Amino acid sequence: MFRGTIFDNIAYGKEDAMMDEVAATAKAARIHNTIMRLPQGYHTVITEDGGNISKGQKQLLTIARAMLYGTNMLILDEATSNVDTNTERQVQKAIRSLMAGKTCFVIAHRLSTIQNADHILVVGHGDVVEQATHQSLMLQKGVYYQLYTSQFG
Q1: Which one is predicted more confidently, 34 or 116?
Q2: Are 130 and 143 in contact (CB under 8 A)?
Q3: Which residues contact 42 (CB under 8 A, 6 or more apart)?
Q4: pTM
């Protein structure tokens, strides 16, 4: 999926995208400044294996693409996996912007990604074992609470 230029990757699926629209979306996704530091900015070609950009940058480009496409429903699967703590914070801010006003299904092991969700389903051994808001699940002191405290002490 990550071939072509940075612009091509953000505009993927929206062939009529203009540079100003792509740049505005990249700013909202918190990747614009990083793009501008690349050798050719938005015209930088991503190598075949994507090795010239980090995993976090790939995730932010994907978030920018989803923002540009403008869908009303999202499925995010481990959106903050394989990134360092600083990048995780950046990705989470971008995700919050992306998710605003949309129906979102978020699959995550890092609970910081989902703690602001309207409704959380906790799955254990293939079954929903708990469901509520973060605050309610914390008060129940069940599976979610144990997972959360193991991650955040």
Answers
A1: 34
A2: yes
A3: 5, 6, 7, 10, 19, 22, 23, 26, 35
A4: 0.74
C-alpha closest to that of 66 among 19, 4, 9? 9
- DSSP letter, residue 108: -
Q: Residues 68, 70, 75, 79: is their CA dihedral positive or negative?
A: positive
Distances (CA, A) of 7 to 39, 56, 91, 146: 13, 17, 19, 43
Q: Give the model confidence (pLDDT) of 59-82 as tens digits.
A: 889 889 988 988 888 888 876 676
Burial (CB < 10 A; 0-12, 13-18, 19+), residue 132, is middle
Type of residue numbered 47: T
Residue 132: its H or E element: strand 127-132
What's the average model confidence in pLDDT over 116-125?
A: 90
